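Postdoc handover notes: sequence design on the structure in folder B. Input tokens:
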């Protein structure tokens, strides 16, 4: 009797497996970022007037090299390449990379900076990882969402909206009046500031409920946090409640505005 060799399933056959692969890569990039953090570095100001450091560039090089090994056929749109005008054509499936989100927080040395990698399919983030190396906390999401903190892995999920009111999050370094005006329409019990994509993760792990962002962001700032939040039971919508989608190449991958919610958007 001839035996047919069993083909093992591709290790990247599920959104969770992809998020795990991104997590490994983000940890490697995070370690390189922490080496630069320890020795200190200067910032250069990019054309969009945002800062970039050696850490952003070293981390992005590691991520691009590792992604080319594990997902060689998927185009990658990465922040520092894009800043130099190197942007591949994207189809229905592509990867977004922000090697160091919260560069201002990195320079201010407050620990609120992250490595972000997300897979987009048909305009939506289906797997993603957010790693905050300074506080050794990793969030990932595919079909499920999880956090690894101090070496312990736990499933995370969003919480029901508290009856006493919502906890709202805002950017620490880029506050904007329109986001404040949006929040004024809801019952807000507590308001906190945080840097980077960690704001999505705070909602995903059930310690906050809403994060509106009317100020400028790029798709790579948002996609990985969006993947984690969606997998944890939340959502990211346009302020009018429409879907918030990715792949806006003609707009230079710029977002307009979005609101991240832990549950369905409550009535105003
Ligand atoms: N004027 C602007 N244009 C485009 N993006 C901006 C911007 N001001 C801030 N951002 C985005 O906001 C991100 C920081 O978010 P937060 O304010 O929540 O920490 C920045 O990510 P980087 O640090 O990766 O550049 C940057 O992409
Ligand atoms: Mg960013």
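Designed sequence:
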């Amino acid at each position: 009797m001839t035996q047919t060799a069993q083909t093992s399933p591709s290790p990247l056959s599920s959104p969770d497996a992809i998020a795990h692969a991104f997590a490994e890569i983000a940890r490697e990039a995070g370690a390189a970022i922490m080496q630069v953090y320890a020795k200190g570095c200067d910032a250069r100001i990019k054309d969009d007037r945002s800062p970039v450091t050696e850490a952003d560039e070293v981390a992005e090089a590691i991520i691009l090299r590792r992604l080319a090994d594990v997902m060689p056929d998927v185009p990658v749109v990465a922040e520092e390449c894009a800043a130099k005008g190197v942007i591949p054509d994207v189809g229905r499936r592509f990867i977004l990379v922000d090697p160091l989100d919260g560069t201002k927080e990195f320079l201010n040395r407050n620990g609120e900076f992250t490595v972000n990698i997300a897979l987009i399919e048909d305009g939506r983030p289906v797997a993603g990882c957010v790693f905050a190396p300074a506080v050794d906390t990793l969030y990932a999401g595919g079909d499920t969402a999880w956090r690894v903190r101090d070496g312990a892995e736990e499933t995370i999920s969003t919480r029901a909206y508290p009856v006493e009111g919502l906890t709202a999050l805002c950017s620490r370094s880029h506050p904007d009046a329109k986001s404040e005006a949006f929040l004024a329409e809801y019952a807000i019990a507590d308001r906190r500031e945080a840097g980077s994509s960690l704001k999505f993760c705070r909602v995903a792990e059930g310690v906050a409920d809403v994060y509106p962002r009317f100020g400028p962001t790029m798709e790579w700032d948002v996609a990985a946090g969006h993947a984690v939040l969606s997998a944890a039971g939340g959502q990211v919508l346009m302020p009018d409640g429409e879907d918030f989608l990715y792949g806006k190449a003609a707009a230079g991958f710029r977002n307009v505005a979005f609101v991240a919610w832990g549950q369905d958007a409550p009535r105003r």
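Context for whoever picks this up: Helices lie at 15-39, 54-70, 79-83, 103-108, 177-183, 198-204, 219-231. Don't rerun without checking with the PI first.
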